[in-house]
From TrEMBL:
Signal peptide: none annotated. Gene3D superfamilies: Bifunctional nuclease domain. The lineage of its organism: Bacteria, Bacillati, Cyanobacteriota, Cyanophyceae, Oscillatoriophycideae. Residues 1-132 form the BFN domain. This is Bifunctional nuclease family protein. It comes from Floridaenema fluviatile BLCC-F154. Pfam families: BFN_dom. PROSITE patterns: BFN.
Length: 167
């Protein structure tokens, strides 16, 4: 799994649909997820630390969890099927953990309010992410190709002691 952060909300130029943009820790990969208008507003409010005058749906959910002495441990965006992302919210009360099915947009809105980590399965990142820093990606690929061209098998063998004392 790869921990990601919300980079912001964008709008698709053609459909005018909001997109939440997640970035990995290196900010080299971005994962765009189309979301609804209400979820976009909720995510923006959480990003800007703007509490509403009255609790909205995600605020209500967080307030209920707190009232029941439950915490959000993390969210996981675990799969992508037919262009639809799937997520879970892992909640905890004491030693008991439960995974609750959720739309990624709702899970992200809750994670932002509870300062919980957002994790994405590596397969989802591989299938749906876009490169943010193409130059860095290309430089890394060039460096790796140069390494492979110049490496000898004996360079890869490390000598060390085994548990029985043999080298």
């Amino acid at each position: 799994m790869i921990e990601m952060k919300v980079a912001g909300i964008a709008v698709d130029a053609i459909t005018r649909s909001p997109i939440v943009l997640l970035k990995d820790g290196t900010e080299r990969r971005a994962l765009p997820i189309y979301i609804g208008q209400d979820q976009a507003k909720s995510i923006i409010a959480a990003l800007e630390n703007q509490p509403p005058p009255r609790p909205l749906t995600h605020d209500l959910l967080v307030n209920m969890l707190e009232a029941w002495e439950m915490s959000v441990e993390r969210i996981i965006i675990h799969s992508l099927q037919d262009n639809t992302f799937y997520a879970i919210v892992t909640v905890r009360k004491g030693e008991v953990k439960k995974d609750i099915d959720a739309r990624p947009s709702d899970a992200i809105a809750v994670a932002l309010r509870t300062r919980s980590p957002i994790w994405v399965m590596e397969e989802v990142v591989a299938d749906a992410s876009i490169p943010v820093d193409r130059d860095a990606d290309e430089a890394e690929q060039r460096a790796f190709r140069e390494f492979l061209e110049n490496v000898r098998p004996e360079d890869l063998i490390k000598r060390g002691r085994f548990s029985n004392g043999e080298a």
